[in-house]
Amino acid sequence: MKGLLLKDYFAIKSSMIILLIGFVVFGFGVSFYAPPYVLMLIASIILGQFVTTTIYSDRKCGWLKSSITFPTSKKSHVSSKYIMYAILCLLGIAVGLILSITIISIRGKIDTYSLLLFTCMTTTMIFMSGAILIPCYYFIKEELSGAIGILAYGISGVFFFGMIKLIENHVLALTISIFTAIILFVISWCFLCQQIINRDI
Question: What is the CA radius of gyration of the chain?
Fold first, then answer.
């Protein structure tokens, strides 16, 4: 498992560092036209896409097929992608959160409610969409998977704001949203681990 995580890390390391540096510059520019809190969502989506890229590149170069001969199971390969996805997305939230707080602190007072709302929204969207995205990239063509990914982010956003509208207690609504998204992510993880055993990857 550790080796699989390191393989993906070294594959995306240089691109990720360059992207994060560019994101900081981009973030300051975007903050003039949109709430800085949205940077958390943008950063987590961008970093999460690195994982789907590694899945597709593994399929394209034949690494998935050759890895069957390694002393690692198919389940371990799948699990490494889910773990890497969660780590990168949480890193995106952390980077976006630090950058947005920095920008807002320079401009004026921090809106605690908006900060909480965007943090919970981002967490819900990345885990719910990840539950759909990762299996798609294993079994569906990249172009179609990308389209499904866009739809998944839209559906997760609708779900989140739907919960906010339906439940008056916003703290409860946010808690349910995050809990539901994480549960779906874990179910997707377990489901794909079972499906991958008897599938040709």
Answer: 18
For residue 56, the Cα-to-chain-centroid distance in whole angstroms is: 16
Lowest mean pLDDT among 55-59, 64-68, 97-101, 145-149: 64-68
Residues 92 and 40: beta-carbon distance below 8 Å: yes
| Euclidean distance between CA atoms 96 and 94, whole angstroms | 5
Distances (CA, A) of 2 to 41, 81, 127: 27, 11, 22
Q: Is the pLDDT of residue 39 over 60?
A: yes
Q: Grade residue 21 by pLDDT with cuts at 50, 70 and 90.
A: confident
Residue owning tokens 């390969």: 77
CB-based contact 178:123 (threshold 8 Å): yes
- Which H helix or E strand runs over 156? helix 142-166
Cα torsion 142, 144, 148, 151 to 10°: value is 120
The pLDDT of 99-122, averaged and rounded, is: 83
Whether residue 192 contacts residue 78, with contact meaning beta carbons closer than 8 Å, is answered with yes
For helices 38-60 and 142-166, what crossing angle results, to 10°? Answer: 150
Q: Which amino acid is at 61?
A: C
> Which region holds residue 4: left if phi is over 0, alpha if psi is between -120 and 50, else beta?
alpha
What is the rounded average pLDDT of the residues 1-22? Answer: 63
Q: What are phi and psi of 198, to 5 degrees?
A: -105, 15
Residue with tokens 């179609």: 144
